[in-house]
Amino acid sequence: MNGLKRYFPIAQWLPHYGRDVLTSDLLAALIVTVMLIPQSLAYALLAGLPSQVGLYASIAPLLIYAVFGTSRTLSVGPVAVVSLMTAASAGQVASQGTPAYLSAVLVLTLLSGLMLLLMGIARLGLVANFLSHPVISGFITASALLIAASQLGHLLGIAASGHNLLELMHSMGTHLSNTHWPTMIVGLSTLAFLYGARRWLKSGLIKVGVAARPADLLAKAAPIVAVVGTTGLTWALGLDQWGLAVVGNIPASLPPLTLPSADLSLWRELFVGALLIGIVGFVESVSVGQTLAAKRRQRIDPNQELIGLGASNLAASFTGGMPVTGGFSRSVVNFDAGAETPAAGAFTAIGIALVSLTLTPLIAYLPIATLAATIIVALLSLVDIGAIRRTWAYSHGDFFAMLVTILVTLFFGVESGILAGVGLSLILHLYRTSHPHAALVGRVPGTEHFRNVERRRVETDPHLKILRIDESLYFANSRYLEDTVLALVADSPQLQHLILACQAVNLIDTSALDSLEAINARLGDAGVQLHLSEVKGPVMDRLQKTEFRHSLSGEIFLSTFDAWQALHRQSPIQMSIPSDEAPPASVRHSSKPGTPQGDNV
Amino acid sequence: MNGLKRYFPIAQWLPHYGRDVLTSDLLAALIVTVMLIPQSLAYALLAGLPSQVGLYASIAPLLIYAVFGTSRTLSVGPVAVVSLMTAASAGQVASQGTPAYLSAVLVLTLLSGLMLLLMGIARLGLVANFLSHPVISGFITASALLIAASQLGHLLGIAASGHNLLELMHSMGTHLSNTHWPTMIVGLSTLAFLYGARRWLKSGLIKVGVAARPADLLAKAAPIVAVVGTTGLTWALGLDQWGLAVVGNIPASLPPLTLPSADLSLWRELFVGALLIGIVGFVESVSVGQTLAAKRRQRIDPNQELIGLGASNLAASFTGGMPVTGGFSRSVVNFDAGAETPAAGAFTAIGIALVSLTLTPLIAYLPIATLAATIIVALLSLVDIGAIRRTWAYSHGDFFAMLVTILVTLFFGVESGILAGVGLSLILHLYRTSHPHAALVGRVPGTEHFRNVERRRVETDPHLKILRIDESLYFANSRYLEDTVLALVADSPQLQHLILACQAVNLIDTSALDSLEAINARLGDAGVQLHLSEVKGPVMDRLQKTEFRHSLSGEIFLSTFDAWQALHRQSPIQMSIPSDEAPPASVRHSSKPGTPQGDNV
What we know:
homodimer, mainly alpha, 6-stranded mixed beta sheet, two-stranded antiparallel ribbon, 26 helices, 61% helix
């Protein structure tokens, strides 16, 4: 792919853009625009920002993503988890509602955009791989619960704030006696309506004869009905005069041009928050993008996605917006509605811009409680109890990482949660690879093959031991290797040659090289020669340049059989006594599901 | 080993303690005591503490380590790097010289003791493995440079302070015009004397006929000569009246009983610092202990060492001390001087206690500049330029981790340095394993073996591909696996069966299981059956319980040959065209050093 098409994916589809595609994209854009209006307002509220910021963040970023993004159907804009993280980060340097808070959000957006852009240029798309699935899943479930809790106050008309569950619950408890009844009635009935529509509307419509696709779209339009209904009711009955909180007057305008603060101390304070917002947003976006792309046998390029999302966030920071990424629900709607190219996103941006210019007076009477109910119901799909159950069944270690992520997120906040989850996944992986499997092997009689002495009857030699190591050697297991080898030598008084069979060693890092040098020296003291066999090409290339290569007391053999032939003394051959006889090769057969299987190596 | 002997290693050697061993231990204790006096005072100075704290920390901890430690020759007490880290951590909550600072140091000591003890009980000795050698080596080199820089002020008689090189240099530059000439003369001449003695005294003595061992001990006594000489000179000439900073009056007493503060907010502020002090101290101690133990074919138990060092630090925190660990230079001297059991350490403790009670009036005239010169020369052995060069030659990645550790330590301080190093080692490891090697394999004609199609002429079948994966599957590479498999399928229009050969897969974590499920589903859409072969026992046990086991479109075969026999159609066999013909088995031979070797798998 040439440079232009790689960095400007728009060049791949725009030249072939035809009339059919235009129709599909326009229809999808219309549907997504209608859905996005309440969502954008709600996520701005969640991030502690004036409602119009959500609209502004759904204009320029979509246009920019259409130029730089590689997903055909991803819809970019404010999303729930990132909005919550924005509130948590910006809340650490300023109070919601102050100009300093707005300024902090713009800096967060700018920084996370810059970081994503730089990561994209450095081709670091693989950072998305460093978040394990249990950690992502746990983090999203916990965030959804935290967001739902943060919206309960709006639903009851009381002031409740906090960055973790304890703070929120405590704050809510303090204010519970001030519950505002009109707000509660609007909030809870909207919640009941939205939940009911989500649960039963589609199947109900199908039952009365509506086709599946329109039934699905109608069910998804329920939030619009709730918004229009409660806004109209508030206007007609003057509920805002009774103290029902509403969105209020929004200036009817296009997004303003804004210049994020260049205060470096503010940048430093928001650095970690911006990094986490960028990475979490990127991971969510890539997951959604890959899932949708695979359905149409398309592909997305994670590195170019970093550039696309980075540029989108830069655009948001200069147009009075907030951090954006590819959202799950909006992208699925876009895909289902038939979007075929990023032009659908650009048309959506134009739709939102028209709304910002013309319809904002109508939004003034929209109750905050309605938005809170919309958020809470939208979050239900993110709480994945099944994933928790499956993870527990498959791996207690992974479940533990997930559980810690959930608990830390709920009780210490989103930043601590994601950091704890990532840290724990890494430690778990190190722990798992820090005790590599190593087996003494012997020769299968009459062949060039060597198998575990505990599993097969194989030829062995008390002067010559062959240790097969089943893991790459690196810092987390290099000391364990030393211990294993030295214990083996201590137990083998007749030993003269030790061969490390390295067919499963894909890497030897500097720490492991130090350990091999130490092993070589200590075996030398004990009068045992150290040999290597089956060293892979790339590993061998590195070893050639080292002092170890020259100080090695023995040789490096191409195959273990070469080593056996060269070093095996013509003493009477001993046979190993396997702890558990393996079946002979002639009766080995393909397995049936449910048949327990042994390690056949 | 029974519980008593395991948790109280003293029970292993005390019952057999004889007269010969007593003589050896007493002699070693005498030599170490003489060496430790200036060292303990100097490290207290380095940690920003009154000199006597260094002496106190060399009494109770040694007695306790003799009971709980597993190394026969490790000498526990204040060490340079840990003292520097103590100054950095305690300096964040209080100013040097205030009672709050002393109190912070006691809490740091208590916390790191508690953490080590808990880690020991939880058998977490393997945490030492998570610090890679390049990171440790880079950290120690950078710390040594930082410590040397921090002592330059004392050498010139000017006030210079700071927690990183920039702060130190800036502070020194500001005060350079105030250089105190008498201090500078004493400081620089002591430095020249100590450096000269270290460099030439031993070889000089051997040249004039002194035997090697006494020559070595005499050379190591140079610091004592410097201390006695400059102290005498200061007293005789009254240099302290000229403004030469001296240690001053130290109360002649045994260590006081102290109760560390129970202020939980202070504990929280010092938490990370205490953890890093504990782990870095533990790593240094275990490295020294293992090196010395191996020389005498003894072993140490890292988990029990955690308990021993934890208890020693607890003892230090209750007796007016500072964080302690097993030091490199003091342990080597103890070993060389012939110590045979931890009783030598206990005798050293008694020696230091006697000094604290009786000799402190003599120490009053000891110039601070002498201690600074002692520290600087002692650090020279820690700067390991050779390790930096070797690491660069062997692995640019490891060198990069080392370089970042050095730079961050120098310019952002010790805590940031060690955290950056550890983080980078982990990321580097994830990066290295995130692109696992995977090879298409075919059957070696007439055998049950399968080899890389690009390296051998092997039988292949366009309807059946066998992909061998050379790495455990986990979160960092699960997405890469998806990409690899889907790209393979996209390029193979005739494909009906894909077999993943898993002999090198030691682990499949939850993220990788999700990826296998996704691969299975997408291959199903494309009409390709997914099979596994050679799945290892423990991996198979886990898979049995999963939904994947039942949704898998194909089968799990015990061996790749079984899979080939079951799925290979009797169409004309195709032979692969290797990119580079491997030598036939008959001419394979053992390698000579210097012969380039290919990947023979």
